[in-house]
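As a warm-up, study this chain.
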Amino acid sequence: MRVLGLLSGTSHDGIDVTVVDFRETDGAVRGTVLHEGSVPYDPALRARLVAALPPAQTTLAEVCELDTLIGQAFADVAADAAASVGGVDAVCTHGQTVYHWVEDGHARGTLQIGQPAWIAERVGAPVISDVRIRDITAGGHGAPLVSFLDELLLRGRAGTSAALNLGGIANITIVGDSAGTGASAIAAYDIGPANALVDAVITKYGLDPLGYDEDARIALSGDVDDDLLASLLSDPYYAVSAPKSTGKEHFHLDYVRGHASALGRDVRVTDLVRTLTELTVRTVANDVRAAGIDFLAVSGGGCHNPLIMEGLRAALPDTEVVLADELGASADNKEAILFALIGWCTMHGVPAVIPGGTGAREPRILGTITPGGGPLRMPEPVASVRSLTLD
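Now compare it with the structure written out below.
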């Protein structure tokens, strides 16, 4: 089955897409990546999206219009990708997160927009969407869903290994031997901001037309402000035990301004960017050391930031730090592969969450299905996925 995966992450800079051809025998799944790419949002659409995100106020009219416009943008990307491989059997779209509601340490709700009916209309294949909420109804955080893929890719490694994704938010999946029994133990959660705060500052002050710190050029021109860093590190979120999740509802531009203004003095914008970059290094390294991780595979936009990667390697001399490509999943495309896999699982009746991955009481089959151009025909169910190989 060919499944097309689509998402736009918490950096909300564009739409990642992949097509994976999955084949299954007795629970062993092999996926061949047929297409992968990333398409930037139209600047005007991205500007409207950014203007509507928390802590900004918006209207239901704007949410409705963005739901349609983002759905149409996703549909364009999906149609082109499907045509490039001669068609697909299903699509799984994450959409664009606009709000993730966490209260008293529990996820209460989550909202992703990008109307899937537009995708079904353009591609003609069934579309799986709204994949996070079912996990939340079972007591999970709806994040990080990538823990399902990470555990399959890390399964069987000796010692304690982990997969780290550095998008707008940094999330980690930790897999290790459970008390020497040979059984796989897993923990997964959102660590804190990766690129979200740096991107917000760069966009606000027009430091780079790309909206991010390419090759850490801006950060390298500044210095770490130790007082500001200490203030940021004192955020109570970092001390909360997993499972936990967060987003731009908590980590946003006004959050940075509040910490900076509390110092009672000006902070150079380049020092701000450098300090926020160091915040990511410190928070990730602290958690990796605490978990005794031997092997760390990194993906997401932040893996291209040399200051972050060099900082992690310097802070973690006893940990092998590599790109996720070594696991068979492209560091730039791993989450799109995840959503293709979730789509395949949903179509085959397989839960795509695991205990420890999100905090859910039990695994759940994820998503809602929008039929394509004809009757919805589901394939024969599969009991479980016991292994995954990507090529």
